[in-house]
């Protein structure tokens, strides 16, 4: 049994090491992209004949607090009115329906081509709404925004011109954050999203590996959607699914790091958990659905297959970290009982290089968003440790999502509650928030005690090799439990 535990433990460390190497390769791609000066063909909007017709799709479901802000913001887009269509794809079941109808009517009276589109049922969830709207969309290009995204007025001018290259099927922009500094929870989420949108998306795009449309703040070529098989609701991340199907059809994606589209980060942990569950389960579902197709495609490079593996299995890192954490305590006792195995544990020390790689990758992004210099290292280090601690605290929740995705358990598309903090100071009264105890919370409390015992064991065994790891786990689960009980 001890041998099995050690072998599994070493294997999990090896997988994390390989994952860190994939991130290092993306870092190199990102740094090269920053030096690249390639000139790309674009539509020249000086000539009206080169201005294509665009449909903006706004998929909505019970967005009472943010929908009016969204519609008024979209109405400010600078684009010829005769070339712009807006579809409000409204699946709502509450009083927001009347608010949307009235706001749409007001905008129609101002000369905007905007339609309030309702369905009889919510089949396919967001994917179903997008697919339904696509049937009657007038535009050759389809821009999509979730309810909490507020694109700048010149957003279409910055994105549409790249479609002059007929091989480009998607232009995706970076997510910005309206409330980055609201709380420690929002800072952690911004830290994670910045890493994805600055380093990962740029690195993958420059290296010509598959990237993904992020569900919002991007624009599709309509013919690309249709050629790739249209939207499908059989996974919880329809955006990732269609992205891979499109790129397997040889469509190119263009990522614009320097175009930021601001949005609101979840401020309640229940909302963050809901979003995390959907993203992580959807990624696992997409691995089941699309990775074998990627592997079998002889036209796809080894680099793309390698990065595609970790891209689609990214959420499964939570499960690997959780298993590693649980095994770390018996490993500590095995190490104490078997001094002859010190050579083995010294060999495992090689995998500490993963932490160093992650540190430099994340610091590169931190310098981009917060500035560099020696003085930035200390606050970054604090954020880096806090981030990974809280990630570990989410590991049980996200591992359940991953397992459901890999084993094919179906569940509904649960929207993330939006708040609109500028308009409301009493977000805790948000009608869409969920609360209450769950069996998962008790399990998280059990793990908190387990890793607390891990800290105690360091003193019993006089072995502090894993004390920082267990301290981060103890703090991370404590944070999640505290925030879950607070609201």
Describe the structure.
With 487 residues, the protein is an alpha/beta fold. It has a domain at 2-29 and 315-486. It is built from 17 helices and 7 strands. Strands 3-2-1-4-6-5-7 form a 7-stranded mixed beta sheet, with helices on both faces. Helix 3 (96-109) links the parallel strand 2 (84-90) and strand 3 (114-118). The protein is globular, with a radius of gyration of 24 Å. The mean pLDDT is 94.
Strand content range: 5-15%
Shape category: globular
**Average residue-wise pLDDT:** 94
Q: Percent of residues in helical segments? A: 55-70%
Enumerate how many helices there are, as a single number.
17
Secondary structure blueprint with pairings:
Layout: H1 2-35, E1 54-60, H2 67-74, E2 84-90, H3 96-109, E3 114-118, H4 125-134, E4 141-144, H5 155-159, E5 168-177, H6 184-206, E6 218-221, H7 222-227, H8 238-248, E7 252-263, H9 269-296, H10 302-312, H11 317-337, H12 342-348, H13 353-370, H14 377-393, H15 395-406, H16 439-461, H17 467-486
Parallel strand pairs: 1-2, 1-4, 2-3, 5-7
Antiparallel strand pairs: 4-6, 5-6
Could you name the key traits of this structure?
487 residues, seven-stranded mixed sheet, 17 helices, 55% helix, globular
Summarize the structure.
The protein has about 475 residues and is α/β, with parallel strands linked by helices. Helix content is about 55%, strand content about 10%.
């Amino acid at each position: 049994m001890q041998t099995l535990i050690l072998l599994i433990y070493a294997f999990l460390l090896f997988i994390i090491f390989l994952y860190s190497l994939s991130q290092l390769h993306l870092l190199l791609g990102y740094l090269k992209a920053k030096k690249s000066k390639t000139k790309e063909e674009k539509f020249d909007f000086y000539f009206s004949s080169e201005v294509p017709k665009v449909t903006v799709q706004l998929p909505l479901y019970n967005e009472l607090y943010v929908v009016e802000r969204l519609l008024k913001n979209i109405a400010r887009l600078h684009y010829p009115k005769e070339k712009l269509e807006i579809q409000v794809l409204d699946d709502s079941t509450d009083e927001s329906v009347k608010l949307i109808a009235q706001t749409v009517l007001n905008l129609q009276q101002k000369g905007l081509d905007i339609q309030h589109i309702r369905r009889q049922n919510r089949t396919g969830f967001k994917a179903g709404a997008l697919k339904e709207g696509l049937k009657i969309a007038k535009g050759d290009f389809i821009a999509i925004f979730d309810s909490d995204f507020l694109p700048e007025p010149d957003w279409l001018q910055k994105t549409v011109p790249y479609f002059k290259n007929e091989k480009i099927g998607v232009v995706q922009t970076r997510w910005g954050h309206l409330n980055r500094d609201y709380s420690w929870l929002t800072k952690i989420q911004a830290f994670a999203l910045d890493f994805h949108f600055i380093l990962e998306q740029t690195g993958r795009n420059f290296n010509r590996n598959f990237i993904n449309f992020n569900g919002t703040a991007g624009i599709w070529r309509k013919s690309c959607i249709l050629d790739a098989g249209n939207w499908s609701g059989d996974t919880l991340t329809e955006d990732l699914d269609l992205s891979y199907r499109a790129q397997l059809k040889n469509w190119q994606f263009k990522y614009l790091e320097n175009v930021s589209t601001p949005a609101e980060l979840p401020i309640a942990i229940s909302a963050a958990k809901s979003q995390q569950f959907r993203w992580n389960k959807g990624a696992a579902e997409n691995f089941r659905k699309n990775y074998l197709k990627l592997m079998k495609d002889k036209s796809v490079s080894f680099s793309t297959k390698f990065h595609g593996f970790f891209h689609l299995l990214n959420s499964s890192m939570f499960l690997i970290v959780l298993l590693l954490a649980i095994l770390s305590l018996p490993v500590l006792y095995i190490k104490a009982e078997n001094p002859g195995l010190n050579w083995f544990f010294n060999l495992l020390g090689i995998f500490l290089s993963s932490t160093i790689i992650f540190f430099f990758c994340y610091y590169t992004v931190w310098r981009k968003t917060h500035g560099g210099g020696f003085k930035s290292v200390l606050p970054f280090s604090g954020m880096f440790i806090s981030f990974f601690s809280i990630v570990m605290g989410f590991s049980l929740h996200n591992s359940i999502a991953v397992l459901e995705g890999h084993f094919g358990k179906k569940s509904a598309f649960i929207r993330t509650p939006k708040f609109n903090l500028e308009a409301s100071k009493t977000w805790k009264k948000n009608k869409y928030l969920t609360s209450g105890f769950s069996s998962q919370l008790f399990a998280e409390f059990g793990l908190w005690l387990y890793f607390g015992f891990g800290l105690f064991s360091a003193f019993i065994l006089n072995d502090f090799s894993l004390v920082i790891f267990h301290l981060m786990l103890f703090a991370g689960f404590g944070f999640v439990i505290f925030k879950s009980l607070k609201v």
